[in-house]
Amino acid sequence: MLARDVMTTGVIAGTPSMSIHDVAKLMSDKGVSAVPIVDQDDHVIGMVSEGDLLHRREIGTERRRSWWLDMVASTNRDAGDYIKSHSTHVADVMVRDVISVIEATPVADIALLLENRRIKRVPVLRDGRLVGIVSRANLVHALAMTIDLLPSGAEAEDRRIRDKLLEELRRQRWAEVSPTNIIVKDGVVHSWCSYISEREKRALMVAAESIPGVRRVEDHMVPA
């Protein structure tokens, strides 16, 4: 399984010209815990997460150290903390050394990357441009249905079914479903979604049932 199989597409992104208030509101409105920051060509130049906004002057959570720590602390670090807690510009707060992967990166490598670098998500790039995000939650979804080894030849057949279903959904105006919410295992289509209506959910199931090789469709979705 590769990054393209589990990544969330339609990524919510910010720009370096945004204010801290704007990016915080974007994250709150969209219900995401981090946003990649991209330039005009969709190249990832930074990342802002909840952790980067944790210590802020506006809410009285800026870093405060005891007097004896102040005596030994680096002045450069003090200046950096002050910028992160007081600046109103995303460019001052975002993490610039962003770790990313490509669509063909195996999920096993991504799991090790997340663990070893102690991060929660990585942007997925195609030709250097942002096309998706793989988070720990994406890997948990994948794990739920792929923990057992697939029988010989089944993986290719499951990939064919999934590709056919995603191709059909891309043609439908109503089908705003992230690929990460569609997993196929042993001919069974598993669906998760928390933002579509009952009718859209039923249409998705009908689309899956119409694909040759699908044994059944299991609904793990919560109606909107």
Please outline what is shown here.
By secondary structure, this protein is α/β, with parallel strands linked by helices. It has helices spanning 3-6, 20-30, 67-72, 75-86, 90-93, 107-116, 136-146, 154-170, 198-209; strands at residues 34-38, 44-49, 101-102, 121-126, 129-135, 182-185, 188-191, 216-219.
What does this protein look like?
The chain contains nine helices and eight strands. Strands 3-4-5 form a three-stranded mixed β-sheet. It has a three-stranded mixed β-sheet with strand order 6-7-8, sandwiched between helices. Strand 6 and strand 7 form a beta hairpin. The model has no long low-confidence stretch (mean pLDDT 82). The protein has a domain at 148-219. It has 224 residues and is an alpha/beta fold.
Strand proportion, as a percent range, falls in 15-25%
Low-confidence runs of at least 5 consecutive residues: none
Q: What share of residues is helical?
A: 25-40%
Distance between the termini: 29 Å
SSE order: HHEEHHHEHEEHHEEHE
Shape: elongated
Q: State the secondary-structure class.
A: alpha/beta
C-alpha Rg (nearest Å): 21 Å
Q: Count the helices. How many? A: 9
